Hints:
With 253 residues, this protein is an alpha/beta fold. Helices cover 40% and strands 17% of the residues.
Amino acid sequence: MEDFIKKTAEYIVSSKHVVALTGAGISVESGIPPFRGKGGLWEKFDPMEVAHIDSFMNNPEKVWRLLISEMKELLVSAKPNAAHLGLARLEELGLLKTVITQNIDGLHQMAGNKDVIEFHGSFAWLRCLDCGSREQTVEVDLSHMPPRCDCGGIYRPECVFFGETIPMQDLDRSQIAASTCDLMLVVGTSAIVQPAAFMPVIAKQSGATVIEINPEPTPLTGTTSTLLVQGKAGKAMRKITAEVGRIIAEKQR
Ligand code: APR
Ligand code: ZN
């Protein structure tokens, strides 16, 4: 791993336009469970039952109770970890331009990243199904399920459910970011949910280097990605960021 950490840091410093694609794995060290694999949410729930737009529309109360209110506890208390902070530091250094995240936890913004594309939307805002008005989740009374707008309509979270398409603007911006970067860091995603998993492929096809940080290999490993830094995101990113700092300091000497 140490060798790959060094290589990744060298790639980052010598690139002109770095973009990151992140998934649930980056927030695991913040106490938020992933979807797939051991301890994942989809071990407990059937995604088509709790995360499909049709299920939500058929029975919003059930979906709110089952999935979203369970996640809320984790989301309101979760803090960014070393991986989020490392990406924020890379943006601060002018190296990282954009984070495309599949996560709805808002931890990248909390860590300080300014350019974050929330590919699957966000849990930070709710939208009324009847009148369309938006409200910040923290401002809404979640003690009664389903939560309701002043007009009486039911609120939905502004995240992208299965069965829904990615908002055009987010998809467009992500495709542009993927096709213009020269290095894409793919952190903590199983890379199986489309179209998010296609962004590294676009990057690669456009000539970029793709590096993964993940304890496990993914379908991208060895085909789309050049390198897999095999380990936890927080631990790896802390080391990578330190190494980036060391290389920059050395250059300035
Ligand atoms: N650090 C880095 N990666 C980790 C860590 C960690 N500490 N722990 C687990 N992982 C990796 C797993 O090996 C796996 O590859 O994170 C990945 C998590 O995969 P998923 O749970 O499938 O999460 P994600 O890729 O974000 O899922 C995509 O699926 O259901 C949906 O909408 C949901 O946005 C989500 C999408
Ligand atoms: Zn309303």
